[in-house]
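step: validate -> pass
step: tokenize input -> pass
step: predict -> running
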Amino acid sequence: MIITLSDTNSATISSALLSARRSAGSPASGMVLTLIIVSDEDEYPAALDAAMAAGREHPSRILLVVTGNGRHSASLDAEVRIGEGTSGEVVVVRMRGPLADHPASVIRPLLLPDSPVVVWWPGSVATNKIASTSLAELSNRRITDAAASRQPRRELARRAEHLAAGDTDLAWTRLTPWRTLLAAALDQFPAHVTAATLEAERRNPSADLLAAWMEDRLRIPVKQTTSSGPGITAVRMTTAAGDIAITRPDGLLASYAVPGQPNRLVALKRRSTADLIAEELRRMDHDVVYEATLKALLRRTADTRSTRRTAPRATEEDSADGKAETATSTSRKSAAKRAAAKTPVKKAAVKKAAVKKAPAKKTPAKKTPAKRAAGRAPAKKTPAKRAAAKKAGR
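step: predict -> pass
step: emit ->
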């Protein structure tokens, strides 16, 4: 049964739900929770199918909030569906204009009394919008999907910083079979794990969470490598006796290898969104393991950033040192070359100085006639000298 309501309000929608339930012959409500789905026109068909499939395990009232463009005038249209392949109730609410900015005012009167409330954002949604929306205040659990984001690793880091009790992500839910199998492997083969390697396709938030979970629980370094997918393809844990390896190249079957035992095939199929939602609706308490994993992811991201920042600095310093050494050696070589080039000039100057300082050959000067006469004739004695000579003769 489908009841279409145009330009309506919350009271009219509640009356339509009650009359539809009575018409279907089930006046008593057997639903256990209210599931609110926030999406746009493109996402809501797939999200509705997944919620209705999960409703077979958890009968619930599904309130699908489809927000439109805020440029239109305020309007509220609704579709009430009962039966339609689900054990609960489905209400598709379309809000446009300014009303789309205040969905809680419309949704609050439609909640089931005395039952938990879960809000699910199936598409890409920013963390600040989740924290600021009024629907988050109505809920016990909040489900997001980082895989739908353009930058899943950054979104996970933001959600870790703004984590509140009841928050979870489908990227974490996808890891339940992997975590179960890894824990079972260590139960069957108890050994000290020294290191681990994880292979997954690029931009896979589940791989980041699994690496952080293993580092937090095993206290070991986990190396991530890129593969062609789909999703996570292999996990290897190193021990003294050998590697414990779980490989899943096709997304269906996994090969499970333990030292000293033959390889075994294990079902490890990638689950649908309906299965993921059904798992999350089984618990309403806060997931403390998920919180610890997000904190480990923050530490891991901080370490990676510090390593990336340090590496370029070291490279720059090394290159600067190398350039300085090269410049020094070049300047030394240039100085040596200049000195070598200047040395012959100095020697030539020394030779010139030696030539200048060498004594020239003396040539006998020509004597004047007066000098020749003085040399030939004895010098005339003065009267004093003659008197002295006479006394000496006596």
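step: describe -> Residues 2-173 form one domain.
step: cleanup -> pass
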